[in-house]
Amino acid sequence: MVGTYSIDEIFELKKIDPPYQEVFELAIPYLKTRLNLPHTYIVYQYAQLLLKEEGGSPEIAIPACILHDVGWSAIPEDKQLTAFGPNGNDMVLRRKHETEGAIIADQILRKVGYDEALIPDILKIIDGHDTTREARSSEDAITKDSDKLFRLSALGYRIDAERFQEDLQNRARYLREKMDAWFLTKTGKELAIHELEMRARELREQRERSS
Ligand SMILES: [Fe+2]
Ligand SMILES: [Fe+2]
Question: How far apart are CA 192 and CA 121, in angstroms?
Fold first, then answer.
């Protein structure tokens, strides 16, 4: 449990669009670390919203989102917190989750018989999704924004506050400070503002209930 959220209730393979179900299914064994399964599922949902508003190729952005973090499976769990989050400055490991991720993603995409012409663009997004800041393509921007929107989602906000041992108010402050620099698309920025307002409202309601 994270707060009032049960992780097991979050993910359902049958809710994934059929062309991508098999990709997701093969990714699951690589997502059993760092709560990456609910993370990836939420990133996938934001990507659908962003694609609708921003355009771009779902055939590239959706597998990139599903597979972007499979490389964490190659990093020992006790080392992962040194490679991401407010105090994660081990750039070698952070980079490694991208390069290992691209190798695993390549294997998965070939196994499902994915269109070979699209694979290089998908792998390019995975390889650099965390260590490059600019939008290298519109699908890259969608993947990056969806990945970061997780931090502002109801579940991601609580997962991160617990994992970085921050209280919820401080976490909201940190997100507000970082937000402008993070998001690359107009819709990503708008969604981020909306999500942060929702989190602030939930905190207010929680305070009112307990007073
Ligand atoms: Fe990542
Ligand atoms: Fe991620």
Answer: 26
Please tell me the distance between residue 59's alpha carbon and the centre of ligand 1 in angstroms.
20
Residues 133-157 have a mean pLDDT of: 97
pLDDT band at 59 (very low <50, low <70, confident <90, very high): very high
Q: Determine the Cα angle at 114 with ends 29 and 93, to 5°.
A: 45
Q: Enter the pTM of the model.
A: 0.93
Q: In this structure, which ligand is nearest to the CA of 128?
A: 1
CATH of domain 18-210: 1.10.3210.10
How much is the CA Rg of the chain, to the nearest whole Å? 17
34: left (phi over 0), alpha (psi -120 to 50) or beta: left
Residue whose pair of structure tokens reads 């921007």 in the numeric block? 141
DSSP secondary structure letters along 90-142: -HHHHHHHHHHHHHHHHHHHHHTT--TTTHHHHHHHHTTTTT--S-SSHHHHH
Which ligand is located closest to the Cα atom of residue 40?
2
The domain spans of the chain are 18-210
Helix (H, G, I), strand (E, B) or coil at 5: strand
Among residues 136, 133, 110, which one has the least CA distance to residue 121? 136
CA distance 152 to 196: 6
